[in-house]
Specification:
Blueprint lengths: L1 H26 L12 E8 L7 E9 L2 E7 L13 E4 L1 E6 L9 H11 L2 E6 L6 H10 L7 E4 L4 E2 L9 E2 L3 H13 L5 E3 L5 H13 L4 E3 L13 E4 L19 H5 L3 H14 L1 E4 L2 H11 L16 H9 L6 H23 L19 H14 L2 H17 L14 E4 L7 H5 L3 E4 L2 E4 H15 L2 H18 L8
Parallel strand pairs: 1-4, 5-6, 6-7, 8-9, 10-11, 11-12, 12-13
Antiparallel strand pairs: 1-2, 2-3, 4-14, 14-15, 15-16
Length: 485
């Protein structure tokens, strides 16, 4: 009898294992081939680095994934593709978060969507799990389709950390040791958050400066902007609180941004310029969260169709958003105040970067950067200046001299157009070829890959199984306030 029970248990276990393996196989998206890195010559093209005049009749020579030479086109130069086309640097999203492995297949989906929208480099500012390091390696070595990836590793915060995957740091010594540990893990930057104690932040700031690692994040409540040097400030954290305390439990309040006076903005601009503080607003994120608040008044963007339905379940449950009518009104009223602030600090000589905070509610990978560029264009009064933020300025802060600007010695990350991309925002989206590190993708290949992924991630099996799983998981997190991000 016991033998029969044992055999039956083993049979049941085997069936469950087979079912799990089958389900995982069914949930995994189709594999996509990555083009080989090839040496190329692009002859007879017009080169346009946004913010500078275009240079016609140029030849770009690519060797080992790097631009080895740019010169005037010679009569014997052979155009590999698209003679007479326009070439500009690939777009860069300076603020993304990578979906966790639990969102099966979504790391590859997001990577593909970045390419669809012309983004050749991204920076992960706070991993949700440890898989980001592996993803970055696979992207950067050409194992999977997607952009170049830079990463900060886990977010450093007080105890307990406010964000998934965050690390608690409470002393200056622990802060310095954590920065060294992350440097040993080959991170490209250090990300800090709201609740860091003053001493911990000081230790982090000093060690990051010593190791020449960019320090990025929310201005911690325990310090003022006037006490920070060489920092990349995210959202509007710390900005209305130069002389007073930030509100407990909030990164910042829209009302405080709205109520900033011209004199206060001028003082903050001076502090930022003097202390080497750059600014990374994510207005597309703030606008997208209103879709959770009221989808009829603030409908989702077209790009939502590329994401699986379970995101609609996950976002409202684990990420904060305006809920009351007063909060919604404050968020709406903060839009012109935010744009005005960007305009003023830009005029004051502060670097403004382009980033989106992908993985936040309804912030669609790739598409959201174009929305952010449009907002920056409104603030700067120039679409070209906004494109410069998403190329040259971002490149300067992510990997100076290597990305965001077409020149000899830079990595071969670029977009190739049949029509002048400077003509309109739509023109910038209509790239014909895209190159990442010497690997060239055609528009047809990426569009076909996106269609294949649309069928997979919106298929009945994926939708029902992941929808059920995330409904269960989200119920455990509801009300946790995890992402005051």
């Amino acid at each position: 009898m016991l033998k029969k029970i044992g055999f039956a248990s083993l049979g049941l276990l085997g069936a469950l294992v087979i079912a799990a393996v089958f389900a995982l196989w069914m949930l995994t998206p189709p594999s996509l081939s990555v083009p080989e890195r090839e040496d190329r010559t692009l002859a007879g093209v017009t080169i346009w680095n946004p913010g500078e005049p275009a240079t016609k009749n140029q030849t770009i020579i690519i060797r080992d994934g790097v631009i080895s030479e740019i010169r005037g086109t010679r009569s014997n130069d052979k155009a590999f593709v698209c003679e007479g086309c326009f070439v500009m640097p690939g777009l860069i999203d300076a603020h993304i978060h990578t979906p966790p492995e639990l969102a099966i297949g979504n790391q590859r989906l997001f990577s593909l969507l970045y390419l669809k929208y012309g983004i050749t480099a991204v920076r992960d500012l706070g991993q949700l799990d440890d898989s980001v390091a592996d993803l970055a390696r696979d992207l950067n070595t050409g194992k999977i389709v997607g952009p170049r990836m830079y990463r900060c590793g886990p977010i450093l915060d007080g105890n307990p950390p406010k964000v998934p995957g965050g690390r608690a740091v409470t002393t200056a010594k622990a802060g310095a040791e954590m920065v060294q540990q992350l440097a040993d893990e080959d991170v490209d930057c250090i990300k800090v958050y709201d609740q860091l104690p003053r001493a911990a932040f000081q230790g982090i700031m000093e060690k990051a400066a010593e190791l020449k690692l960019p320090l990025i994040g929310h201005t911690p409540h325990a310090v003022k902007m006037s006490e920070i040097n060489n920092f990349e400030s995210q959202h509007y954290t710390g900005i209305p609180y130069l002389h007073r305390s930030a509100p407990k439990g909030w990164a910042y309040k829209n009302e405080d941004l709205i109520n900033l006076t011209p004199e206060e903005i001028a003082e903050i601009t001076t502090v930022m310029k003097t202390n080497g503080i750059s600014f990374l607003p994510t207005n597309a994120n703030a606008r997208a969260r209103l879709t959770v608040s009221d989808s009829k008044r603030f409908p989702a963007t077209k790009g939502l169709r590329h994401l699986p339905d379970f995101w609609k379940i996950a976002w409202p449950s684990v990420v904060s958003h305006p809920e009351t009518e007063a909060e919604i009104e404050a968020a709406v009223n903060a839009v012109p105040a935010a744009v005005n602030f960007i305009s003023e600090v830009h005029l004051g000589g502060v670097d403004v970067l382009a980033g989106t905070d992908v993985v936040m509610p309804y912030v669609i990978p790739g598409e959201s950067l174009h929305l952010q560029i449009e907002i920056l264009a409104q603030a700067f009064g120039s679409y070209e200046t906004a494109l410069k933020a998403a190329t040259t300025v971002n490149g300067k802060h992510l990997d100076a001299g290597k990305i965001g600007y077409l020149k000899p010695g830079a990595l071969a990350d670029m977009l190739i157009f049949e029509n002048d991309p400077a003509n309109s925002p739509q023109s910038t989206k209509d790239w014909r070829f895209l190159i990442v590190g010497g690997r060239m993708y055609t528009r047809e290949y990426i569009d076909d890959a996106v269609e294949r992924y649309d069928r997979h991630f919106n298929g009945a099996f994926y939708t029902k199984l992941l929808g059920f799983a995330y409904s269960y998981i989200a119920s455990d997190y509801e009300g946790s306030g995890v992402a005051e991000h």
